Please model this.
Amino acid sequence: MTVGRVEHERIPDDVLELCRRLWEAGFEAHLVGGGVRDLLLRRPVHDWDVATSAQPAEVQGLFKRTVPVGIAHGTVAVVLRGGRQVEVTTYRGEGAYSDGRHPDSVTFVRTLEEDLQRRDLTINAMAIDPVRRELVDPMGGECDLHLRLIRAVGDPMERFAEDGLRTMRAVRFAAVLEFEVEEATRRGIGASLESFRKVSRERVREELLKLLAAPRPSVGVELMRETGLIAEVLPELSAARGVSQNRYHLEDVYTHSLRVCDLVPPGDAILRLAALLHDVGKPATVAPHPDRPGESTFHGHEKVGEELCRGVARRLRLSNEQSDRLCHLVRHHNFALEGWRAAGLRRFARRVGPDHLEDLRALRAADLRGRDGPDQLPLLEAMWSRLEEVLRAQPALSARQLAVDGNRIMSHLGIPPGPRVGQIIRQLLERVLDDPTLNTEERLLEIADEIEREGEESSS
Model:
């Protein structure tokens, strides 16, 4: 990653025009925040934010379309052509974040330098005057970009006390940008855990998910461990450190988990979180191997891991969909690679759900690549090739795919609605999973007759 000159031509014309209009009205206007950092790093810029000497009411008076997205904190969103919204914020200083979410007080300040002094990291405390094409960098952010350093603005302890989430933001930026954390800043993170504990779980969740988008999330997770953050955010993972395994895992459970997380392709934070936590049940299930001295077994770790992940999901306030997906992936990640027959593969696809198959394949592949010993990836590929062959025949994997439904069963057998109907449907599906050719109305009704007769005989 290289640091270059400011490529002013990358600043959108409508954003430039917004700033020009503020200057022409007698106010200052600078681009600030992550957009400036990413412009210098030649990374894509997703958001353009403007800091100005104008008060919120003055900004609203200059532009026809505005949204008061945070007017109490000095922020007005200006709606530009095409619907783009640019947040314009009055130069400000902030008080403490007692609730871990919002500053207790906001004061408007007179100069850009005062505004930049309140920001978290030097690389986020630069500004660009796009009209005059000037970089304003009183905190040395450009130098730290060249040095590939994450450094707090001013005293790290003061910055992190203002908002405890800044500790995790520092770690996240180190992972995403692949930078080092400056030593005083690193010490400040470890000394600011009390401030971090005040941060809302929702904000912590968002930082963690962003960290998992890093090229190598393990960089950030290891920084979290070294600074004490991991015990606050994912104590279940912290417990895996030092838990040795067996001949296929020369590394402990924690280190293996980090390696697997890195090996999962980026772009899916929940899948990467599942990779990070896939073996989180091992510390609770570790036992000496009965036949191999010095090695361990972890029977049932998938089920225990699923339960632990349910707690992680609650703590991080994941959505129900995210929680279910995370727990499902952890529960089913350790499937066998050999010995499958066609019926077993159909049951496997039904059990894990067709929508989760590719996720599990990616997770299992990363898990195998993250092990030591013989390469088992060919076994996975052979199993998956056979699975795809079986599924190409489009077998019934759920009751909805059967050639008969509950109403047809009731009318054919002359039985009322009730649990018995569901029992018959489930038995029919089991028969079809064994032999897909049975999935015709005629054949299923014959089998339903057999099931009903057997039920009558057993109850007489």
